[in-house]
Amino acid sequence: MIATRHACRALPQVQHGIRHYASESSPSSSSGINRWIKYTGYTFLALTGTFAAVRAYVPNPLDTKEAAEAAFRKAATADPSSSDTSPTEKGQANANKVFKGGEQGWLDLKLESVENVSHNTKKFRFALPDKDDVSGLSIASALLTKYKGPEMEKPVIRPYTPTSDEDARGHIDFVIKKYPNGPMSTHMHDMEPPQRLDFKGPIPKYQWEPNKHDHIALIAGGTGITPMYQLCRAIFSNPTDKTKVSLIFGNVSESDILLKHELQDLENTYPQRFKAFYMLDNPPEGWPEASTGYISQQLLKTVLPEPKEGNIKIFVCGPPGLYKAISGMKKSPQDQGELVGVLKEMGYSKDQVYKF
């Protein structure tokens, strides 16, 4: 496991300011975006002195086996029978759903392919039993994985959020970062096709409906981006969903940014509705897309919707240090715990924040 760092420390002078967006809109529509970027940039440049800030740690937050199993036992599948179903639900309607929850038990899936994403991250594609099957996951939900090595007394169980579309047929994808002394991530990185791995689920998280909120903000660190990306896929794949999304994504270095190309595609396609801010501990020289490595209260004041703005929601997912400083930890998968930290200080209520 990566060495623990202090959760908070003074913020150094911002070197890069707010990033420029990847999207380039037409002259007729760019003025509003440019004014927004200019205003945000000026806000950062105006900052002086130091203030408490949160390090964007590389995450390794995982629920315990008992908590994950408890969440699974509460899982229930929904039958999308209403006419107001999302594209994902429609895509799954006439297909066999592999993961049904309840008392289904563990299913072993064959590893179909492995793709290197970065120096410590791989994309894994597992084949579903039939080429026309879908996973059966809803938004937002995850799957449990299980592995027991020859010298292990007990199996290792870890939850992961797929990165493939929920209505993808015949396969399910995961982007997994390898952590030192991380038994499950190490095992998966050692796997080769056609080895198999046990899965179970789905584990329901936050039940999403189109236009459930007018504006959501996603505060993520490292691999905490995967449930956030699942939400984004659902929102932007549905033409009827007009939700605005702001993402604050912290990492150690540029190579640690997972799903960067997918996020940039969203920026290019939906420049008026999707804004992303990349925060790096160790940014490359002259890189204009990130501030220096902190998710700070001052940044959040600039980027997040106001607590009194109306129908908003703040989602948090990352390492323990990020949770403790931004929102407080969950007590269990079923208990969000009290809201503390930066979001509490900024005036948000417990009902306005969800911790993955």
List keywords for this structure.
single chain, 356 residues, alpha/beta, six-stranded antiparallel β-sheet, six-stranded parallel β-sheet, 26% strand, globular
Structure in words:
With about 350 residues, this protein is of the alpha/beta class. It is built from 9 helices and 15 strands. It has helices at about 25-45, 65-75, 85-95, 185-190, 225-235, 260-270, 295-305, 320-325, 340-345; strands at about 10, 50-55, 105-120, 120-125, 140-145, 155-160, 170-175, 195-205, 215-220, 245-250, 275-280, 290, 295, 310-315, 355. The strands form 3 sheets. A 6-stranded antiparallel β-sheet has the order 6-5-8-3-4-7. Strands 12-11-10-9-14-15 form a 6-stranded parallel β-sheet, sandwiched between helices. The chain is globular.
